[in-house]
User: Which sequence fits this backbone?
């Protein structure tokens, strides 16, 4: 399925993407993660982050909370790139772990799959520094009553 805003992204869409990137950077939870959101186009999002020992469970690899957070965020922002007026909320997320993550850079890639009005579906995957997939997930997101423009950090332009 093609995102509703397919084709060349408009100046307004680009401003919305930058405002979402700013919103991500301003979220208090992201003080715990060395991460950066990038929205290259409608229905797509990438989170660049680094795993280190602070994220490990007792077995010496990244704890599942890191996997979930980055997959959920990548899928969420892929969907919210299509919505300019409201903040979305995660209503469900399924996660498949395929290999452990050690320390190093990781990219979470999110891609919108379906939905254009109130409910959206996206998938995301984690890619480690060797190019191998470490996890994948699918999320469902719903429009909230929270206006994006009123959120601290959402700054267009």
Assistant:
């Amino acid at each position: 399925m093609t995102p509703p805003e397919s084709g060349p992204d408009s100046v307004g869409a680009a401003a919305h993407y930058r405002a979402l990137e700013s919103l991500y950077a301003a979220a208090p939870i992201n003080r715990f993660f060395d991460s950066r959101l990038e929205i290259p186009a409608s229905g797509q999002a990438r989170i660049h982050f680094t795993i280190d020992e602070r994220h490990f469970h007792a077995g010496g690899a990244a704890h599942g909370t890191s996997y979930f957070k980055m997959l959920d965020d990548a899928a969420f922002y892929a969907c919210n790139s299509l919505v300019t007026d409201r903040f979305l909320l995660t209503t469900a997320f399924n996660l498949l772990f395929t290999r452990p993550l050690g320390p190093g850079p990781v990219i979470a890639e999110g891609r919108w799959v379906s939905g254009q009005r109130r409910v959206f579906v996206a998938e995301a995957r984690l890619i480690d520094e060797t190019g191998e997939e470490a996890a994948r997930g699918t999320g469902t997101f719903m429009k909230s009553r929270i206006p994006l423009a009123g959120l601290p950090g959402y700054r267009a332009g």
